[in-house]
Hints:
By secondary structure, chain A is of the alpha/beta class. Chain A is built from 13 helices and 21 strands.
Amino acid sequence: xxxxxxxxxxxxxPGGYAAAFLAADLGMQVxxxxxxxxxxxxxxxxxxxxxxxxxxxxxxxxxxxxxKKWGVYFEKPTIDLEKLRTWKEGVVNKLTGGLGVLSxxxxxNYINGKASFINSNTLFIDKVDGTTEExxxxxxxxxxxxxxxxxxxxxxxSPLVMDSTAALALNDIPGKxxxxxxxxxxxxxxxxxxALGSKVTVVEMTAGLLPGADRxxxxxxxxxxxxxxxxxxxxxxxxxxxxxxxxxxxKFEGAKAPTEEVEFDKVxxxxxxxxxxxxxxxxxxxxxxxxxxxxxxxxKLQTNDPKIYAIGDVVGNPMxxxxxxxxxxxxxxxxAGHKVAFEPSAIPAVVFTDPELxxxxxxxxxxKEKGIKVEVAKFPWGASGRATTIxxxxxxxxxxxxxxxxxxxxMGIVGAGAGEMIAEGVIAIEMxxxxxxxxxxxxxxxxxxxxxxxxxxxFFGQSxxxxxxxx
Amino acid sequence: MINEFKLPELGENIEIAQVVKILVKxxxxxxxxxxxxxxxxxxxxxxxxxxxxxxxxxxxIEEGTKVKVGSVVFTFKTEGVETEEKSEPVKIEKPVExxxxxxxxxxxxxxxxxxxxxEFKLPELGENIAVATITxxxxxxxxxxxxxxxxxxxxxxxxxxxxxxxVSGxxxxxxxxxxxxxxxxxxxxxxxxxxxxxxxxxxxxxVEDKKxxxxxxVFQPQKSNDAQIxxxxxxxxxIPSRNTMPGKIAPAAxxxxxxAREIGIDINMVRGSGNSGRISIEDxxxxxKALNEKLLTTPVSAASFGVSHEPLPDFSKWGNIEKxxxxxxxxxxxxxxxxxxxxxxxxxxxxxxxITDLEKMRKLFGKKVEARGAKLTVTAxxxxxxxxxxxxxxxxxxTVDMEKNExxxxxxxxxxxxxxTDRGLLVPVIKNVDKKNILELATELGEISVKARNKKxxxxxxxxxxxxxxxxxxxxxxxxxxIVNSPEVAILGVSRxxxxxxxxxxxxxxxxxxxxxxxxxxxxxxxxDGARFIRWIVEALQQPFLLSLEG
Lengths: 471, 551
C-alpha cells in the first residue's frame, strides 16, 4: 500500500526547500525528497555557500598582502588546509543542519532518498537506508536542479581534472592550475585558488570574461583578474587534456594561445551547468522537456502535466538560487489556488569575485540587442569618498533608464560590496522608481551606496562629486 | 583569395546562434580580432572577432537570423588579390572548394551547387491570426522539396490550411513537430537552396595547396516579392524562456501587479496616474470599476459573461472517460456560436416550399449542368433565390453595430454555405452570388465543397459572408433552428424534402415539400419581414419566374 502526500517536492535545494516550507506554512501536508541528510542542495553543499566562505578567506589574504601599501606588514600567511576545510564544512553543516531543524519544526515529511515518477501521481522512492517506498501525491514540484557541464571528448576521468564540486572540496593547493571557462564559477573559484597561492591560468573561448555582462563592467573586473591570475587566455579553446606523470598536459587553440603543450597540476572545468531532467521517470508523466533539456512550464511554473510543477535550474536560466526560491513560492501559491505568476521585473545576479560584479534588470547589452532605447548614467568610484577610504576606487555604478520617464530599468555595479548594494537596484526596478526618486532619497555618508544616488544625479548633470554638466 | 568566415564553435551543445548584429558590410576592411558579429546563443551574447585581415566581399546572412555553427556568415578576400578579382567574368558570391586533384582545365560544372540557406517561416495567414497549430509537418530533415509542394498542414482559429513551399531545395532542419503551436513569422524549417543555373563561363583557377576557389554565380532566393520570407523576424523557435525580461514592464510595484492578477486585470491595460505613469492599487481598482460598468451597460457582453464557466463534475466517478483537446476549429466554433447565441435575439420562422415542379425542372436541366461538370443542387438554386430575396429585403443583408448604433447595409451579395467535414463545420463563402447564374453557382459550390473536404480552403475563402445556408437535407429531419452566423443577421436551414398530401382544388395530391427554417436577428428584422422573406423564397422555389420578375 502506497503512502500518500498532498505535495511532494523532489529536490531539497533552495528552490525545493523554500517551496516545501511555504507549502507547510500554508497548511499543506508536504513530503520533501532529497538525497542529502538535510536540505540545502547544490547551493549550500557544493555552490554558493562553501564558495563564499572560501572567497572570504581569499579576500582576507589579498588585503593582508595589500596592507603593505598602507604601512602595515603581516608575515606571509601559513595556511592550514585541514582547518580551513573543517571551517568551511562547519559553515555548510551549520546552515544545512538549521534547515533540517526548520523542516522538522514545520512537520514536513523529509524523505532521505531518490524519487522517480512511476506515473503522473505516484513516485517510487529509493531510500538511503536501503528501503523503498511508493508515494502518491496530489501535486508535485520538480526541483532537481543542475549539474556541471562536461566537455564531450575532452573531460578525462582523473582526480586532476575537477568540476566545481571537486574544486570546492579543497583537497590541495595545486602549484599550477588551469580554469576552463571565464564565467562566474571559474572566476570565483580561480580567485580562491589564486589567493591560496596557486598560479592560475584562465582560458575563455569568447572575446571577454563573463560573457553576458556589460563590457564596461566586466572590464573593471578583468583588470583585477589579470593581476591575480598567472594569465588569462581569451578567444582560446582547449583542444586536448592528457594526464601524464600526475600532471595534466593541455593543448590550446587560439590566436594568442601557447602553441606548445602546457603542463598543469590541476584543471578546473567550469563551462556551465545543465539541468537534471533525466533519470527520474519524467517519461512516465506528461511533463515536456524542450530541446535544451529544460522542463517546459508556464508562468505559474506548471508543467504540461497539470499536477506537476517545476522550479529552479530545471526550468531555465538564469540558474540562480534566489530565482529558484522565488519560483518555488509562486508554484506553491499556484497549487494553493492563488492567482499568481512568476513575473519579476528584475532578477539580480552577483559574481563574488574581488571586486564583485552585480546587475539587475535590463543590461545595456540587452537593451542594445532588443532595440530598447535607454539612457545610461555611470558613476566611477574614483569620485567616491568611501571607496577611497578603503582604497578601492576600482568600481563603477551605472543605471539604465527609460529616456522618457527616467524610470530605472536596470542597474549594474562593479566594486567592493556590489553584491550587497544591488538589492537597492532590484527594489528600484520592481517599484518602478525613476532617477529623481533615487537622487532625492538620502543615502548614508560615507558609504558606497552613495554611488547609486550620485549615478542618478549624474543623469541630471548634477552629481555633487563629479563635474559633468548635462549636454 | 576568397575566404569564408564561418560561425565558430560556441560551446557545448550550442549548434545555432541568433545573429543580433552584423558589424561589417560588403566592401569593409576588417582586421584580425576586430568584432564582426554580435550573436546570441542560449547562454550569452557574444561578439565574434575576425580571424584574419581582409576585405568583406559578401555578407550571406541578415541580422536577426539564426545561423548554425560552421555555416558561412560572410566571405572576404585577403589583400593583394584585387586585380585577379576584377578579371573574374562572373560575380563572385561564394567560393566553392574543389580538391586540387580534380583541377584540370575546368570542366563546365553541370550540376547545381548548394548556395544558400533560407528560413521557411510561418506565413501571414490572415487578419488577426498570430498563432496556428501545426497539425502535420510533411517534411523531414534531408527531404528534397519543390516549390509549391505542400510542406505543412496548419490549423488556425478559422480553418485548416495546407502551406506550400516557396522555393525548391533540401530541408536542413525542422524546428517544429506536429501538434505544436507556431507564431506567424516563426522559423519552421531551414532549406538549402539549390541553384539550377549552370556555370556558363570558365573561371580562372588558382591552385593553392589543396584548395581551389571556383567562383560560381549564386542563385538568389527571390525575396523581394515573397511575402512568406519577408515576414517580420520574430522570436526564435525555441520555447521562450519566461525569464527573459520583457521590453516594457508595467510601472507597478510587485504588490500592485499581484493585486491586479488576483482580480483578473491585465496590469498592462491599466493607466497609471502616478509620476512617470506609475500604477497604484487605486489605479487598478478604478480600471476594474470602469470595466465593470462598461460590461453592465453593454447587455450584449454582460450576457456572454458567466456562460460556459460552470465548474464540471468529475465524470470519472461514474465510469471511464477520455479527454481530448479541442481542435482550434471546434474551439472557435464553440466560442463563436456561444457568442451569437448570447448576443442575438433570434426568431426561427418555419415554412415549406412545394418543389414538385422545380424538381422536374432540376431533373430536366440536371444533365445539361452535369455535362458542364457541375451538379444542379437545391442549394445552388437557393443561393440564387436568396441573393434576389436579399435585394428585395435589404435588412437581410445588413449587420447591427450596437456600439455605434448603426446598421451597416452591404451592397454586395456573398453567401456562406455550411459544409460538413471530418474536422468540423466549415462555412466557405460564395462571393457576388447576384452576379453569377445558377450554372456558375453550381460549379463553384461543387469546387468549394471539395476544397473544404480536402483541407484546401484558405482563410480568404471563408471570410466576407452576409448570409448563410445550412442544408441538412442529405441527412434528414424536418425542421431545425439554425443559429445566426454573427455578424450576419439571418440563416436559412434546409431539411429533406418529402412527398406530402397537399389539399389542392378539393383533393389531396402528393406534392414534394421542402421544409425551410429561417432564423433571423430580431434586433434588425421584424417578425413580419421574416415571414415575408421566407414566403418570397418559398414562392420563388414554386414559381422560378419570380426570380426574373422581381429578383
